[in-house]
Amino acid sequence: MHWPNFILLASDATRYALAGGALLLISGIAIIGDRRRSRRKDPDAVGIMPWRDIIALSTFAGLALLAYGAVGWLKG
Predict the structure, then answer these.
(1) Reduced to 3 DSSP states, what percent helix, strand and coil does the chain have, rounded to the nearest 5?
(2) Do 51 and 75 meet the contact criterion of CB atoms below 8 Å apart?
(3) What gap in Å lies between CA 62 and CA 76, rounded to an integer?
(4) pLDDT tens-digit profile of 55-75?
(5) Cβ distance 58 to 26 under 8 Å?
(6) 56 phi, psi to nearest 5 deg
(7) How far apart are CA 48 and CA 71, in angstroms?
(8) Which of 11, 16, 46, 64 is least enclosed, having the fewest CB within 10 Å?
(9) Contact at 8 Å (CB) between 30 and 54?
(10) Cβ atoms 69, 17 nearer than 8 A
């Protein structure tokens, strides 16, 4: 797979921050999915996606990766 040069030449801290941002984006999408599920018209039409678990895990991992990236940026 061909990776763009800005990712190939980026530092490890930048890669961790990009991964953390991607996980926070997934968390935002899961928040929208959970909100849609909580406002459904038919309470018996339960979906199969565990939105709350996805929110919790992706938010925690995303914030941890962003913090790790920020520490790497500050150390230089």
Answers:
(1) 75, 0, 25
(2) no
(3) 21
(4) 999 999 999 999 999 999 898
(5) yes
(6) -65, -50
(7) 37
(8) 46
(9) yes
(10) yes
The one-letter amino acid at 50 = P
The H or E element that residue 58 is part of is: helix 51-75
Q: pLDDT by residue (tens digit) across 6-42?
A: 777 778 888 899 999 999 999 999 999 999 998 988 8
H helix count then E strand count, the chain: 3, 0
Token pair for 26: 């997934």
Look up residue 11 and give its amino acid: S
